[in-house]
Fold each of these.
Amino acid sequence: MVALTDRVQKRLTMQTAEIAPDTTTIRSLDWDRDRFDIEFGLQNGTTYNSFLIQGEQIALVDTSHEKFRQLYLDTLRGLIEPQQINYLIISHTEPDHSGLVKDILELAPEVTVVGAKVAIQFLEDLVHKPFKRQIVKNGDKLDLGKGHVLEFVNAPNLHWPDTIFSYDSGTQVMFTCDAFGMHYCSASTYDQDLGAIEADYRFYYECLMAPNARSVLSALKRMDKLPEVKMIATGHGPLLRYNVEELVGRYRSWSQAQTKAEKLVIVFYISDYGYSDRLSQAIARGITKTGVGVEMIDLKSVDPQEVQESVSRASGIVIGMPPAYNNSATAAVSTVLAAAKSKQAIGLFESYGEDDEPIDPVMSQFKTVGLKEAFAAIRIKETPSESTYQLCEEAGTDMGQWLSLERTIKNMKSLDSELDKALGRISGGLYIITAKKGEIKSAMLASWVSQASFKPLGFTIAVAKDRAIESLMQVGDKFVLNILEEGNYQALMKHFLKRFKPGADRFAGVKTQSANNGSPILTDALAYLECKVSKRMECSDHWIVYSTVESGRVSKTDSLTAVHHRKVGNHY
Ligand code: FEO
């Protein structure tokens, strides 16, 4: 059976495969999962991967999303009688992996649930019934027989504080849940086509793992102590079998780069309350786009010392309002306040749970201590939409840009004025990139645009990493390149050079029409091209976005393109 949405029939299918001796993956394939459903930018669906290890004792590693209830349980029953399962290993308690734990406990009431202490506490609240449990710590082992000895690796914050990895020394398969995953749905069980998956792998890292880069490095250190890992059995997307070293290496180098950032923002959120988790991710992504580091801390499980230590290292603090009834979380906010110092930046957002601690008194206390409000408090009045997440991301970027201001000004100062002047003689045209994805739109003035190929017709644009539109220019995204006209570009240029507030409509007061690909065409542009992002190359502080052209038109054939002449080349 499939689930129905308003207009589209969603495709949900199952796949099972033997991935190692006595080890079967049960993959729930969610082909059409909507963008913004979890990690923004998601376009290629996702999968929820569960695993069955049949030693003398039988272990099930994670379950699935509740939308797969019938399909998953039927598939599981096709492999084994659920009562035969001895252990249910919980890598992480987010509902996309633990959505069917209650069902498994009903089918197999004698099963022992294995997980980190925080995970078991969370499940107690979820299940409301006694169940057998085994709390595991880093290095603990569970012998399933037939050579399958599971060793547990603590991996807090990847993606909640409850996360553990499980390494089967018998098969050298490591079960990592969110870590090393990606939102990518295909019939391929494995990662043989690196080219097809690497953009999603990177984007997923940026959304979920970059704000936890320190935790990624700690987990990698623990992994390094294990014997060889031949396969990474992730909770989302294809399992890593062909590119384990390469893809683990990318996590290492991206995380090392993140932790070297000069400035740091601590984002306090509260897992499993309202939309705190997703909203905080969007803010964190906005911050990391500016090159400022982020650490995410769950107010639900943090201790006061950790709060003090992290706040003392931070240049900025973001807090998702916890529920007023949660005494330990509200006490943690008081600890943040007590540890905060003047000149730090502060940003607050509502979690949209049922009983958020009010923002205003908390903000005024931070201001009294001398903190500067980096973005207007984000107040959520209805279920967050794509626009809400866009607003959060842009608020995060504003905060990051403000914290990087000194560095930006320093970079603008000339080191070699002759060189800067010479570089400034590289000229470009003047263009406005416009994009629409789902319900959100964005635009950017661009000058670093250059044709790059004939077959297919293609060109490149250099997009600074902290541009809002960057999130709408992922591989596969569509946009319009509006080409401005010599002598008739000033009004558009002035409009799009403005500093827009987070979430502001960049097209207010501008004449537009809709392109076939949905993006706005600026009516006053000289020409436009409808384009599709094909590849992205990382170049220090910019992305070089190579795009192919699908169609285009010129409004005045005898007019010329506006040209941007600069004095120096070390800043825009
Ligand atoms: Fe895939 Fe954090 O759950």
Note: The radius of gyration is 25 Å.
Amino acid sequence: MANIATIEIDGKKYEFPLVKGSEDEVAIDIKALRSATGGVITLDPGYKNTGSCESAITFLDGEKGILRYRGYSIEELAEKADFLEVAYLLIFGELPSAEKLNKFHSDIKKHSVVDDDVKKILDAFPKSAHPMGVLSSLTSALTAFNPSSVNVESEEEMYNAIVRILGKFPILVAWTMRKKKGLPLYYGDSSLGYVENILKMMFKQPNEEKYEQNPILVNALDKLLILHADHEQNCSTSTVRIVGSSHAGLFASLSAGISALWGPLHGGANQAVLEMLEAIKEDGGDTKKYMAKAKDKNDPFRLMGFGHRVYKNFDPRAKIIKIAADEVLGDLGIEDPILDIAKGLEKEALEDSYFVDRKLYPNVDFYSGIIYRGMGIPTDMFTVMFALGRLPGWIAQWREMRLRKEPIGRPRQMYTGETERKFAPVNKR
Ligand code: SDX
């Protein structure tokens, strides 16, 4: 393949270099486009064909249903690694030795507390507040109590901000859920593993002398967090990168990412899937009615948990989560009719030309909520759990952008409004 692309505009030819990635993906480097052509830009709403950066963190192949973190397949990591190990891999690029992982975890534990005034901020929220709004607010509020985490220039300063947020974020997640349930807020237990500690902070009951860890829940949560840990330049990660590109602090950038993830077209879909399945169940399991709604262009309803910007084949995470859902509910002895409805819906959709022609398959959000529900997590907390998993990916992408000293993100536009016109007061004074 030639290593240049030629664009012809008004009979004049312009050449631009082709960039090839380590998986043989090809991009046209248009950094010089506007200056070389006297102002011509590209237009690509939703950035469906536009790369915002070069990144060495995660690789997706949407046609083949491949997902790898730093070269390791999601299937192997979900089966053989644990979440904190994967977090280290995503952020620093290599799997940690036992010694490095222990130091990472002990540095995180040093910051596994939050200022008591954060509880006052949390108390100010009504119980009806959506947990994602609470989490985004509290994450941004952490900046006020950790000012040193804002102007991070050196790798050491970045490391300190990273272990701080990895220590504090699980507390915010647990407290956000317990606040809604009217339960007392507990700090973590530094004798426990990272995921065990999260479960204890979330689920320890006031009358319990000792919280008994359930290995089924520990393994399920560890796997779910790994599966959600990164996904290259998705909406919320792109948000974290562009906010961070202005040199806003890490916590502020993460807070913006949480808000982006909240949307039902993105991470909010896991909550929307459960609400959809519940509605179908209430409707007597009439999946055909909802399939018809999803295909009706005049109906805004979409089959939540289906379709993906990149995967035009099965989302590899959905395959793993579907198996895990059966295992976890089975191990917990839970018979959830919602799971059967989900499987029925999937089967119908995969046989329906509307979905097949558009290559719409179940995505990561289709089955994950069924496991969270089986674990006793409220539906409106599902996207908070997604954010907990995505945290190391956001951090890794933010760190990569800052270390590479990438320019502030500032897209262009195509103006289609009024051309110049003289001011003539409409209301005669
Ligand atoms: C996540 O990007 C990531 O990596 C995200 C994520 C991550 O890990 O960060 O993977 C997590 O966000 C997963 C996606 C969760 N969202 C949902 O499940 C919501 C339902 N899905 C859709 O809203 C949609 O599929 C998107 C938003 C996921 C993708 O939308 P696109 O790429 O903009 O595709 P599109 O809207 O242009 O759809 C193409 C066609 C359209 O029909 P036509 O106009 O061609 O006739 O497919 C149709 C759409 O109407 N379509 C659907 C559909 N998804 C797409 N029709 C019914 N139900 C759906 N779910």
Note: Residues 46, 231, 234, 265-267, 269, 294, 302-310, 358, 360, 363-365 surround s-citryldethia Coenzyme A (CB under 6 Å).
